[in-house]
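User: Predict the full complex structure for these chains.
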Amino acid sequence: MSSTVFKLKLGQVLRYLVPVYAVYGFAVLLPLCIAFIYSFYNDAGSTFVGVQQYVKLVQDSNFWISFKNNMVVVVICVIGQVGIAFVIATLLQTKFLKMRALHRVAIFLPVVLAPVVTGYLWSLIYNYRFGILNWFLGVLGKEPALWLDSPGTVIYAVSIPLVWQYVGLYLIIFLAGMQNISSDIHDAVEIDGASWIQKTIHVTLPLLKGVMQVALLLCVSGTMKTFDHIFVMTGGGPGTNSMVMAQYAYDNAFVMSRLGYASTISIGMIVLSTIVVSLVVKLTGGGLRNE
Amino acid sequence: MNKLGVRLVGTVTNALVMLFSLSAIFPLIWMGYTSLKTNKEFSLNIVNLPTKPVLDNYVSAFDVGDLSSALFSSSFNAVISVPLIVLFSFVIGYFFSRFNFRGKPLLMAVLMLGMLIPVHSLLVPLFVQLNTLGMLDHRLTLLLPYIAINLPLTSFLFLSFIRDIPAEIEEAAYIDGSTFDRTLFTVVFPVCMPMIATATILNVLHTWNEMPFALILNKSAELFTLPVWLTFFSSQYSTDYTGKIAGLVITSLPTVILYLFFSQKIMNGMTAGAVKG
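Assistant: Here is the predicted structure of the two-chain assembly.
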């Protein structure tokens, strides 16, 4: 590679990189700084109050309930999205299964929906009087259930639409990863008489380690920012039983008009998400591949 | 295992996966045909097919709910912001894959930051910022946030794509006397067409489906995008179930059509970052 051709010139920087980074700085970096600064101000955003808002945040049981709910949703989504997707992906690799292309297209379809649409669709499915689930319970001769209004189980109810919508994403990630495994390996293992379970645990899983790490990372970081679905289905209720951090920040800012405290929550969200995601990176062994 | 056992396992597995696939698409099919029912028919039986399909829900959504302006707003945001996202990401991808310069690690880290932070943590500060600058509630308000939010992921897609293109094609262009700008747009850009198509489709999906920023930054009814229109429609006409379902269909139809035409591109784009490191 000739070194003079690929040497950056000032004119190129000014013409290309500066405008692009100006937009990015304006709508991502500047807000981040503002959130940081505002998090030290009072609710109206007029007086500097030091770390007072952070003290409040640490003692705010509703914030920690939101965080706990976030973690419950993360666990359900890791099992439901990554887990189910992995099982189905391995099944789609076997000769047993028919109509593989159809399954792939059908299971992926919900991924392209707007989260808001998924939220409303599932609030209809969960609807007490007009919901498909209660209709089904009626057919079975059972009493209708309060899906989104029962405090104890609402957090599970709001997680299922998330699993439903995104399981297809992880399915195609695993399928793409499995395509890179040579078919010779599968043939050899099958000739040796390994069962599907043996093959999955001892051959597929180890070979997909890297893809699995990325899938887990995507799933955890994606689920940590859950907002749209819950906003539409329950708004965090009943009470705070399905409250998540993003919804809590939204409520504080736009329902209770506490912009300062909402900024503190936003920073808290960034810190906690970063900790959780780094923990996942650590637990799954090693970081993202460098390019 | 004997032959019969193998066949039994096969049948059960097929049935289970089929059930799972059905549960993925049945709600959408149900949504489709229920939108053709009247509320009366819906309340009598929620699962049956419509006895006499009607378009009333769609007609009233355009009349009562002012759906046409929501359709326009959503299209406007996508049509303006997506080409800019693609262009900007192409530029970043090109500079990062071809040049080594001081500050590059910093610029890349800053871009990475945008992917790592939960995007909703920007909601409150962006509201404060645009409020102070008097930039809220305008036709153009959402464009800059949409471009910036989608920039990191798309840039890294372009970065890994351009890295695999041999640099000789540009060197040849330079030897022929082409300028930098010309080389960038008439030599490199066309080679990137597959990634440009993928990036365009992915970002149309992202901007079309986006709700929280649209909800918070624009308050005037004529600026509502489809997802925001849905939230207002369903709070104002909370008992109009079939009307709401028609709204869901209209919001989803463009993305579903995109998917049916470009499923391979969408799947490739969404797996590119995960599988190819």
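Residues 241-275 of chain B form the longest helix (35 residues).
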